[in-house]
């Protein structure tokens, strides 16, 4: 049967509508997992079915042959566990446990690939209400995803991006819809675009995000390599994420975007860094980037003093603000530079306090600058991030710098204002990138500061200290102001007389 | 002050007898700014609290509805029907390719009242306390107050003879100029003080 061409908007709408089934019953922070998991299941099921159909055409009379061929597919789905198997039984009781069983079976059948990915999600949960209501909700869900518009067969979709985009669309909507809590797993796309361009990931690079959330920043970096190296997929993505459901999301997101070469670990990066080499040391990367939680409270201060990886040797960040804990961790996972290789480079999104807070943070900052690791400070506009209005900054660090200066860019005043969120336009991003690459002072926008200048400022990196954006007021001539005043007063007196005339005409005098 | 104000012979009449009332152009959704668009649109934010139109800040957009748009003409009156302010605004000149947002009404003097009704005077009256009080009592909605068309249509208007209207309109126009002048005087004083502060710091 010929399939109609697929339309991204249509898919987004259909999936978003499927959310209606849950609205009012469960919180978005919970049902997002159901929706996103179902989208994943639907996608691999359709992919599976597509292949089966194709093989049936070839080897129609040889089911054993088909089965053998299917065993080599990237995702294996055991008999009875596809989306369509569940769909077929949707009118019977037990939808919840059937879906759970299917997910479990798929996890088992795919070895380490999907290990634990579905463990945090149970469709057979009381959160969906008592048995009958739960069954009804899940039947609706299966029916929404069973619609023809959501036919995600590769033969119809063509490229993977349609599903990946739908995934991103949903994550973004959940982030916008569920307010503060969701900010933790979504970096606005322009900011991850900007980071991925600034860091210039190259072919063969190992790229890591130690606070990867749903993995969008990592995938942007991957896309950057593909874009600049002729579609090359010669790179590897690494990540770690503390929240189990978000980690699952990142895993599914990777597969949906065709990023099979990844290693995303689940766990707390500061207390328990999982990305280690065979000898129990930290892995090192060419590119390290993250948008870690801003000023995280209870980040693991208690054990930082005897960190087995000595990540906090420049100082232990304050108990209630984890910003420098993430920065320190990231610095320690950068590859060293050499005369032939540029070495590790890193981009991190931070709240402004990181630039100027004193005491232990001040000491760490001084040390990082004295070691000549800090390369660039970029001030971003306010209201760019979900769930917080505060302006953020990007810090770029390099293991191997070309000079001993720090470039400051004040990009805080150039943006497109939106209703709740401000936006960086392509032009805004391009200007930041050009300025960064030229590494030169630009009047009222950027300043290349020497180490001495930073020392004179006590290692305070507050951007206005370096980039003077103060608009000189025109020289005011007191004599001109004075004569203008007299003219205005004269005009006012005339007007007063004119108005008195009107009042008289009207009989008020 | 007058012991007793001159009693102007005027008759009370409802607004809809004097003017036609048209809803604003039915843009779909919020009005999207498009620098390459063909038309301009007046929105409530373009109307000051005194009822002046700031024509220089109008956004450029495209017509998204099916209906043909009304272009603004000299003598038209715009009325903000939604939100906390229910002001009227006088259109002082023809504005081709300029229409109005759906949250505004377009009031146009009926042909039979041409020459007998000064629209600038009418604008002034709509913005004064008695008519405003009438709107306050009739506005509907909790967050977004709304004056429906029938409510606007029934607003009570006093119509004196045309000479009186003209004089009031001139007084109103003068009061707008006075307001602007006073603001310039305030700004002028601020400049003076800034200059003194700058002198102090640069000579210390």
TrEMBL record, chain A:
Residues 11-145 form the N6 adenine-specific DNA methyltransferase N-terminal domain. GO terms for molecular function: site-specific DNA-methyltransferase (adenine-specific) activity. The keyword DNA repair does not apply. It catalyses: a 2'-deoxyadenosine in DNA + S-adenosyl-L-methionine = an N(6)-methyl-2'-deoxyadenosine in DNA + S-adenosyl-L-homocysteine + H(+). Its EC number is 2.1.1.72. Residues 160-474 form the DNA methylase adenine-specific domain. InterPro entries: D12N6_MeTrfase_N, DNA_Adenine_Mtase, DNA_methylase_A-5, Restrct_endonuc_T1M, SAM-dependent_MTases_sf, T1MK-like_N_sf. Keywords: Coiled coil, Methyltransferase, Restriction system, S-adenosyl-L-methionine, Transferase. Pfam families: HsdM_N, N6_Mtase. Residues 478-505 form a coiled coil. GO terms for biological process: methylation. Belongs to the N(4)/N(6)-methyltransferase family. This is site-specific DNA-methyltransferase (adenine-specific). It comes from Endozoicomonas euniceicola.
From TrEMBL, chain B:
The keyword Nuclease applies. It comes from the Bacteria. Keywords: DNA-binding, Endonuclease, Hydrolase, Nuclease, Restriction system. CDD domains: RMtype1_S_TRD-CR_like (cd16961). InterPro entries: Restrct_endonuc_typeI_TRD_sf, Type-I_RS_S_subunit. Transmembrane segments: none annotated. GO terms for molecular function: endonuclease activity. This is Restriction endonuclease subunit S. It comes from Endozoicomonas euniceicola. The lineage of its organism: Bacteria, Pseudomonadati, Pseudomonadota, Gammaproteobacteria, Oceanospirillales.
